[in-house]
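From the methods appendix. Each design record in this collection lists the discretized structure first, followed by the designed amino acid sequence. Records were kept in a plain field format so they could be parsed without special tools. The example shown here is representative of the layout used throughout.

RECORD:
C-ALPHA CELLS (183 positions):
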C-alpha cells in the first residue's frame, strides 16, 4: 500500500541538467504548479512556507532574499553546499567515549540542548559542556540529497518559481475583507 503513495524517481538531477534556468514569480500558473511540486517532493514535511508546513528546517517564505535562480536551485540539488548554521548538525564526543549527534536548538553556559532526530523535535537531549571532549560541526546537511528526484525538470523549475515567490499568495482582488464587530 505504501508503494502506491510513494512518488517514483524520475531522474537523479544534477546542476548541469538546468542550464539556462528561467523563472517568473509573477506567473501565477507556475507558482501554483510549484506548490504542487513542493508537496510532491515532500518539502512541507520539514519546511514552512507562507505559514504552511512543518517547522523542522528553515522557513522558506523569504528564501529568495538569500538565494535566487541557480543559487536557490543548487541548495535544493546539493543541500550540503551551504548549510544554514541554525540547522547544522553537530557531533559531541563525550569524555566517556559516547557520541551524541544532532542539531543544537539552544545553548546555555553549562550545556547544549540538542535534537537528535528532527522528526521528534520535542525530544531534546541535554549535553553538558564539561562532559564534551570535542564538538564537531557536520559538513552534511540534515536535508537528504535526492529530494527532487521525484520531480520532472518542469516541476523543479516551477518549484524554484514557487520558492522565489515566497509561496502562494492570494491575489489582492481575491482577499476578502472581513469586518468584525458591529457599531
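DESIGN:
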Amino acid at each position: 500500500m505504501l508503494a502506491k503513495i510513494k512518488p517514483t524517481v524520475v531522474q537523479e538531477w544534477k546542476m548541469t541538467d538546468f542550464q539556462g534556468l528561467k523563472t517568473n514569480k509573477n506567473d501565477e500558473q507556475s507558482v501554483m504548479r510549484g506548490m504542487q511540486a513542493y508537496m510532491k517532493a515532500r518539502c512541507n514535511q520539514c519546511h514552512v512556507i507562507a505559514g504552511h508546513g512543518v517547522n523542522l528546517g528553515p522557513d522558506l517564505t523569504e528564501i529568495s532574499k538569500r538565494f535566487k535562480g541557480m543559487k536557490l536551485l543548487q541548495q535544493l540539488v546539493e543541500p550540503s553546499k551551504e548549510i544554514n548554521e541554525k540547522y547544522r548538525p553537530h557531533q559531541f564526543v563525550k569524555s566517556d567515549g559516547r557520541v551524541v549527534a544532532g542539531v543544537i536548538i539552544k545553548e546555555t553556559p553549562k550545556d547544549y540542548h540538542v535534537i537528535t532526530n528532527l522528526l521528534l523535535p520535542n525530544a531534546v537531549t541535554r549535553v553538558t559542556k564539561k562532559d564534551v571532549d570535542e564538538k564537531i560541526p557536520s559538513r552534511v546537511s540534515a536535508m537528504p540529497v535526492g529530494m527532487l528526484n521525484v520531480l520532472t525538470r518542469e516541476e523543479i523549475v516551477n518549484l524554484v518559481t514557487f520558492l522565489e515567490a515566497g509561496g502562494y499568495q492570494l491575489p489582492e482582488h481575491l482577499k476578502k475583507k472581513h469586518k468584525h464587530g458591529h457599531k
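APPENDIX NOTE: The chain has a mean pLDDT of 87.
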